[in-house]
Amino acid sequence: MFNAITHSQIYVLDQDEALDFYVGKLGLEVNSDVDLGFMRWLTINVPGQPERQILLEKPGGPSMSAETAAQVRDLVTKGAMGAVIFSTDDCRKTYETLSGLGVEFTEEPTERPYGIDCALRDPFGNPIRLTQPKA
Amino acid sequence: MSRAVEDTNRRMLRARDAMDRAYAQPLDVPALARIAHVSEAHFSRTFRATFGETPHRYLQRRRVERAMFLLRETDHSVTDICFEVGFGSPGTFSRTFREIVGRSPRTYRKESTSMPVPTCFAMVWLRPSACGAAPSTREDVR
């Protein structure tokens, strides 16, 4: 049957702004950035992990009506769509580094039964979590 | 959806995130309106229009959700938990908890067990819902 998860998708409201954030601040890598005409196929991955990508998709036509696209944008900005969880070797250090770059966190590093994690949102409202799993 | 509404959504979300993060602090409308960069006059109404409940109710549910967590996962006394999550008096805490969860804090503690899921999902899914008591034990969820 299946071999792997290769792509997951989240909605972003502006792909350039998404790149500034995910690549410029969080330090992810652009995997593909292709203008297909009907859409811009934009994927990112954790550096060195190209086998698993996140598609940064902009809601809009022709796959969605203008009304649906507006609903999706509304939900994204209410924080009601998508979620990404990244793992990190050192949650506290990553938190310090990203805070220094002006990333706004919604939760500081906290001890959990499964490790240490902290949380932030992307510029559009999508929740992102950074977890340092328990060794 | 206009850009203005999306911008307002994000501001309200920022205030809601502050409640999730600093739930034990005395967060009032002026403080939350400042975080959201909107006027006090519009804050509560706009928040309710965005998320379907008042900021006060949201904060109460967040505090009760944290209390549920502490009742499940720690052996802190009910009185300590009341102040830990930001309630001003044990009476208000018990009344609000019972109103939202449908059981007293002590009964809830007796009936619940801990769950091995990431905290963000536990927080979102176990929080008592705005429209009635939420599932609060695994038995209820089944």
CATH architecture of the largest domain in chain B: Orthogonal Bundle
CATH class of the largest domain in chain B: Mainly Alpha
Q: What's the pLDDT, averaged over the residues of chain A?
A: 95
In terms of per-residue confidence, which ranges of chain B show pLDDT below 50 for 5 or more consecutive residues? Answer: 132-142
CATH class of chain A: Alpha Beta
The best one-word shape of chain B is elongated
Q: What is the CA-atom radius of gyration of chain A, in angstroms?
A: 16 Å
Number of strands of chain B: 0
Class from helix and strand fractions of chain A: alpha/beta
CATH topology of chain A: 2,3-Dihydroxybiphenyl 1,2-Dioxygenase, domain 1
Q: What is the fold named in CATH at topology level of the largest domain in chain B?
A: Arc Repressor Mutant, subunit A
- Cα end-to-end separation of chain A: 31 Å
Greatest interface:
A-B, 25 and 19 residues
GO molecular function, one term (chain A): dioxygenase activity
InterPro entries (chain A): Glyas_Bleomycin-R_OHBP_Dase, Glyas_Fos-R_dOase_dom, VOC_core
Keywords (chain A): Dioxygenase, Lyase, Oxidoreductase
Organism (chain A): Sphaerisporangium rubeum
Task: Note down, in words, how this protein is organized.
- The complex is a heterodimer of chains A (135) and B (142).
- Chain A is of the alpha/beta class.
- Chain A has helices at residues 15-25, 66-77, 91-100; strands at 7-11, 29-35, 40-45, 53-57, 84-87, 105-112, 115-121, 127-133.
- In chain A, the strands form two sheets. Chain A has a four-stranded mixed sheet with strand order 1-4-3-2.
- With 142 residues, chain B is an all-alpha fold.
- Chain B folds into two domains: 3-52; 59-141, Homeodomain-like (Arc Repressor Mutant, subunit A, Orthogonal Bundle).
- In chain B, helix 1 packs across helix 2 (29-36).
- Chains A and B meet through helix 2, strand 6, strand 7 and strand 8 of A and helix 1 of B.
